[in-house]
């Protein structure tokens, strides 16, 4: 990175731009909500007025030398309802998260290409059509969209004035063109994106994913390179500045915790014709992320059978940084998975990744891929209590498990009725079909499916394997013993605990005995989910992600039949149980590629942890790449590799039981971190400080 | 090799998947237990004895006494009774006697990953050549998967030569060129090792030379030069790998009830000479 980027990066990292943030009194924000109520406005008008309020109150800020402008100064958006009104709505409706449109992927590219004035014409045309139909609601919605275009243009004009005042004619000139008119250069396209993304936030939308940036921005880059407007270095500098812009205000997003801000960017993958689309911009993005070492944007790499090992190497270089990305998604599995749920081929090939791992469709998807979660550990817990003693063989017990999954999904899906989502006029402008149909995106789009995470899969599978082996095959443990032991948290049956925890077969050891149970359990999950439809005409999508549920779901259950004691966490996503010592990464990827992941198509990655010293030199980088590629070639759907850092090592030292598979390179050899004595662990922790 | 004897038993102490510095591609690494050398810097002391051993982590021990309660022997017979009663899992029996057939099955599990990555199986130790019948029968069972052997080179000539002809890649240690110093720090004379090295240099088998750099013991320019002279004419030497000593080498001694007491200064930085190899056009790298 050059000096200019370094100085901007430091400026942002030191949060110097926070000085421009406004401290607006809570009363002002709350009064705004009350005024919306008092004016007796419809929700669409309220949403529009919030955007107007936010954009009017924004103060233009241009940071020293920056070329991708727009910095947030408002820290808290007003609600469109008073707390009393919202409580009333909640009584009558299902509310997902904050009740706003979130976690979808906008069609940025069309608006960037044609400009807001062209979009305005389209909206006006739509108003004419709806007027003829006397569709008053539709007209109200379209007028709200028109107002949002005005609001965005007005703020841009104020930014232009500020640019002129501060002697930034370059910015002034650019803002005379965009966002009113289509972008003509890479720089303009990046700035245009920033304005749209900023405005989505101001609109109240969050987890505003970036999507296939390397695809929709490529033509601008190529034009500039071909016509010598930019050379590679200057284009790279712009790209780095653009990446930094994602980190300026990400703390202002609502999320489960810092960093959970949904700024996912997808690289590579097949194009509309099924050909690999990885291009020079994809590579530049990987390199920019590598240089900047920032958590945003979060890089996802789509791979397929034609992805060569060099591209995996670029990904592995990034993994080495310890940021926990790129996350890999396998086109060969994801696309057929989407097709099986009724997605059109062109849309499926264009899939992107939502805030975490869920597969969604740019412009067409109003899926809610994280609407609920099925706790597999709880299913097994309930099944053991209710059915284990009465089941004559393992197959009978598995049928009962299947039955319990059905019951649980019935309960879960029954709660997902009468959903209400706040309207989002500006977001609607960026989604296909909303203008033509004169309908806000909150009511849905082409795809309106719901995703159900599956948590505690490994715990469930390990528990089932232990039951199969000891209760049925060997008959060395009775059903009653299992039931009592997990109820008492193994307090009075130490020997059984040792047997279940340390001698029972575990998922992740490439052992068909247990892996076949995973195959069956996930097939059942997929088949049962198919029976349910949501109220928006969509289906339910089974997944293997956990989000924060891997901690939450533990609270609902006792100890489990795999020897996990009460309160010990479940593993994150589609991963081996935490307290299990496995043979190694080859066995893990083999086990976790056995289930048909085309069926578990909502997403949720296998998560592997390798110590960052494994990434030491180009040879070992290549080996990690090969491991990732092997998983994909065997039918893995999604993978995330962590280069383990010092903090994790400290955790591992405190809780060795939870980090048994953490591999560290010690001296010309690798070993399990938790097996080393304290002084050596400390030494490696110290070394980790130097490595990172 | 004549007939295959898959029932031959040997003793191993670990299998590691995804060894990234021990041969090409993705590899599994199996450690044979037992070694005729006793290198003062040995970082795998559980690889020295040919017998099963009890390993104990004392640092987290709360002294609950359950392990002593179940023990009925005056001396440890590695029965393992104390292993499972330790709620903190601080004890384990190191070493598993295993038949060739069963070990081959374990190593070949997931072999498509190894093969597709251009990798294979690396046999290390301990000293693999110290269990020759076990080793050669195992190699027959593993073929055609790519085989690499890590050896000290301390073995009878015919054993060494058979190994070279049966293996795709050899990692051979050269610890010191001086016989007396070698004897002092490893417990054995280097005469056999040098002889075997000379054979390896003339053979058609690819090999790497590994030099553990031990501060004040072998990290001298003179020793490096003598080493380079020994191997400069080798036909299939792929590279020399220098492995600087690391202080974590002593990590496991106390677990075996042994004391790590090397008579060199473990805190001294090692000298790393690479030019001396480059002068002879020998590819050299520091791991």
Describe this structure in words.
The complex is a heterodimer of chains A (692) and B (287). Chain A is α/β, with parallel strands linked by helices and 692 residues long. In chain A, strand 4 and strand 5 form a beta hairpin. Chain A starts with a helix and ends with a helix. Chain B has helices at 66-70, 81-85, 100-108, 111-116, 132-142, 157-166, 179-186, 191-202, 221-231, 275-278; strands spanning 9-19, 27-32, 53-56, 91-94, 96-99, 120-124, 146-151, 169-173, 206-213, 237-244, 284-286. Chain B contains 10 helices and 11 strands. Chain B is an alpha/beta fold. In chain B, helix 3 packs across helix 5 (132-142). Chain B is globular and about 60 Å long. Chain B is 28% helix and 22% strand.
Tell me briefly what this model is.
With 692 residues, chain A is α/β, with parallel strands linked by helices. Chain A has 29 helices and twelve strands.
